[in-house]
# Entry
Amino acid sequence: MDRSSSLAQAVPGLWQFGRYFWPIIRPQWPLLTVSGLALLADVGLRVLEPWPMKVIFDYVLVPARGDAPVRLDPLSAWDPALLLTGAVVAMVALTGLRAVATYWNTVSLAIASSRIMAQIRDRLYRHLQRLSLGYHTQARSGDLIVRVSGDASRLQEVLITAALPLVSSLLTLVGMVVVMVWLDWRLALLSTVTFPLFGLAATRFSKRIRRASLQQRQREGAVAATAAESLAAIKLVQALSLENAFADTFAQQNQRSLGDVVETKRLAAHLERTVDVVIALGTALVLWVGARLVIQDALTPGDVLVFLSYLKNAFKPVQNFAKYTGRLAKAAASGERILDVMETQPEVRDRPNARPAPIFAGAVRLENLWFAYKPGHPVLKGLHLSVQPGQQVAVVGPSGSGKSTLMSLLLRLYEPTAGSVRIDGQDIRDFTLDSLRPQISVVLQESLLFAASIRENIAYGVAGVSDADIEAAAHLAHAHDFITALPQGYDTPVGERGATLSGGQRQRIAIARAAIRQTPILILDEPTTGLDRVSEKAVVDALRQLALGRTTFLITHDLSLVPQVDHILYLEQGQVVEQGTHSELLSQNGPYATLFRMQKALREETSVGAV
Ligand code: ADP
# Structure
């Protein structure tokens, strides 16, 4: 039977997967060896299974009816009663031993594969986190979650429920064919005439099954992604009454994915029933010819019994062959999706000669810095800037002018298209990412808190901090008072997105988080946007404390925060239009001065209105 063609798509994929993760698989060799030996024992015992029955037929039943034994061999000299007992005991013993072998085979494989998969999943997750922002802004997070959880467990499950039975039934088939040829080659040949029919059916269907199941996986990924996206932004979805629109999209995707499931099942069922008919055909042929051979004394009835039993037992797994190949094909698809992620190189990664950064003093220089998200569409066009350690720089300008992009480049979330970012005179690409990023802390416009206590949120990822350090950071961030006023104080759990705290409180926790890191460089990206005046004042005070002695970049469109900084950079369409101190820029009467005066007038107007 031509199994290879039906497995042709699945096996290379799985092979490649195995090779890629070989360093993780190899250490499990003792368990895998136990599993392999147990498998061989299982196969041997299965081949022996019908033999006690043959002995009973040929040496106990047939002689008892007065016929002479068909063949003269050592066994015919034995006492039939003893043979009968022996055969019956052997029958039970074979099954018992097989149970033990199968048990060890499955259990040791399950342990080994769980260990392997856990490590693969860890690696996958680590790798995903390291992939550049450029990748994540394009990939859908729901789809990535399916890859980390669904695809990895599917592979493990398939290994045990499909690959193992498949290998075991293939070996059994080979063993049984060898014994059949040894018993009677003509009848063996006859049994194998149905093989091409199996091959034909299997090749026809498994390609289609594979295609359908790959599509099913992709659709499931899309369903998960839609759900994840809308649930992550549930506030917005509800506020804009988008529930129905999302529900409709979800229902459509769900329906399509359902159609694929049915199609896969339909194809598999078709193949299985075809195999049923082919087996019946084989059995009929063997009985027809076998019975004649017995009448001609060329075979014993026991031999025909062995043949029939082999046909049934060897082909029963073949009946499930479609199921196994289907599952293997799905596993191969899962493997491909995992490899696909693993083989995506982070665009931003350590250079071969990267070295750990020393502790920075905090001098930052931009040298002719260019950057484009898409080739040919530069977002930053040749920026120059020199900042002394501890200086504070405000980056202002209309939205879309490239301010956030500039901060991403400082953090090395993206690589410059040309030019460089230098810290203390060194190109930041010469440093390892792990030593660069921990020296820069960030407070963003909307700070995400992790689903953990406030204490953990402040200290997240910083080793060796004491409760006193955490409280000191909270004091600096003007957060201590409101935290201690909460019923559980620092142990108060905050929701997945910190939903139980106000915007200003969240910002102050983010400031404490930045403070505890004691980094020489600080990036504040619109940290007060969206806050009311009272919260804003508390946050601004906290930020002033935080910025003391650190090289600070403040992105803001609220110019009331700006006058105190040492240097102002006014960006427009990726270029510096003006730069200097507040008073210098005011006297230049350029776009900064215009904007500043306009905002000031507006503020005075609203505060007068409020009074
Ligand atoms: P600002 O912070 O000044 O509002 P940004 O740095 O966010 O400006 O954006 C600068 C330009 O880059 C904008 O035209 C924006 O559309 C574009 N941009 C920002 N992020 C991306 C991205 N991930 N992919 C492609 N273009 C982007």
Remarks:
- The first helix runs from residue 3 to 7.
